[in-house]
Amino acid sequence: LMYELYYCKTPFIGATREKIIDNIKQKELTFPDDDKDDGSNRNLRQFKSLVSKLLARDPSERLGHSDKNNGARKVKKHPFFKNVIWTKVLNKSYEAPFVPEIDLGKMKK
């Protein structure tokens, strides 16, 4: 989902569900901007690292998979989440950086 939100497309495509599954099993994960990425953007580098580890083909290498008790903890400790205060997430106390205005007049009844 992170990949799709960032790139507006799925990491593995195919004309049918079966082809998508085949591509997941056989194709390497690539990122659309790899040819333009010089590695200097730390956030992008950490994002790609996290997504790559979450989508590792071998389940034993997948971030968060191998240790049932510490899987989520390992994901949360990834450098991508370095500045996240998890108690604020749990308590829903983060303030949204942007709150859109809602025009209730345009809502259907």
UniProtKB/TrEMBL annotation:
PANTHER family listed in its UniProt record: FLIPPASE KINASE 1-RELATED
Signal peptide: none
Sequence ranges assigned to domain AGC-kinase C-terminal in this UniProt record: 82-109
Classification via InterPro entries: AGC-kinase_C, Kinase-like_dom_sf
Keyword check for Transmembrane: no
EC number: 2.7.11.1
UniProt entry tagged with the keyword Lipoprotein: no
Top-rank taxon, per record: Eukaryota
Record's protein name: non-specific serine/threonine protein kinase
Keywords attached to this entry: ATP-binding, Kinase, Nucleotide-binding, Serine/threonine-protein kinase, Transferase
Class of this enzyme: transferase
GO MF, one example: protein serine/threonine kinase activity
